[in-house]
Specification:
alpha+beta; 203 residues; 52% helix; 7 helices; binds glutathione; 2 domains; Glutaredoxin; Glutathione S-transferase Yfyf (Class Pi), Chain A, domain 2
Length: 203
């Protein structure tokens, strides 16, 4: 088993953090997105969508979508639980993870895609769209701040995949986009310091 990976990209990092939390060792194969290595004919045979990460099983089949890959490893090794512990908890973790994808990750990714020089040749950049999404993302971080005022982690008192999704999104915005995402959101900042101090954050 191996995972096709690119260190700077947030979705592959989501899986790396998830596996680090579970202490699962993995073989990672470096695929350089900026050099277009994920868009070659050979790579598109592995994942017709071209995206990373991709999990290759030993029988030569491929699993894509970072959450699907996490779901597989959660089933394989349930401890520590990162996707919920019973039907109700699983549903709530799912809800918070989807909210982090749609309300936090997506606007931050849009800002990067529509402003960062690395994307100039990849998409038609629309600065006004980046501006709208930046404002939306900042507003949603204030909302997240009000959630984290009430509890330790995003889905409750236990660290879950929802924290990983928000963590990779915020790190992307701060490190690659130079966005000041942690200013004025004290509870998000406290939470971010906590997740960043976990050994998995280095993954
Ligand atoms: N929904 C997919 C998204 C995969 C994706 O778009 N990954 C990005 C990196 S974060 C990528 O490979 N982008 C390069 C490209 O699509 O050419 C997932 O969760 O795995």
């Amino acid at each position: 088993m191996k995972i096709y990976d690119f260190p700077m990209a947030p979705n592959p990092r989501r899986v790396r953090i998830f596996l680090a939390e579970k202490n699962i060792q993995m073989v990672y194969v470096h695929v350089d997105i900026f050099k277009g290595e994920n868009r070659t004919v050979e790579f598109m045979r592995k994942n017709p969508m071209g995206g990373l990460p991709v999990l290759e099983f030993d029988d030569g089949t491929y699993l894509t979508e970072s959450v699907a890959i996490c779901r597989y490893f959660e089933g394989l090794q349930p401890d520590p639980p990162l996707m919920g512990v019973d039907p109700r908890d699983i549903a709530f973790v799912e809800m918070w993870n989807r909210r982090m994808e749609l309300e936090i990750f997506s606007p931050i990714a849009n800002v990067i895609q529509h402003t960062h020089p690395a994307f100039i040749t990849r998409i038609k950049q629309i600065p006004e769209f980046a501006e709208v999404r930046r404002d939306y993302g900042l507003q949603r971080l204030e909302w997240l701040d009000s959630i984290l005022a009430q509890r330790q982690f995003i889905a409750g008192e236990r660290y879950t995949i929802a924290d990983i999704t928000a963590q990779v999104a915020i790190d992307l915005g701060v490190n690659l986009g130079g966005l000041k995402l942690l200013d004025g959101v004290h509870h998000v900042k406290r939470w971010h310091e906590a997740v960043s101090s976990r050994p998995s954050a280095k993954a």
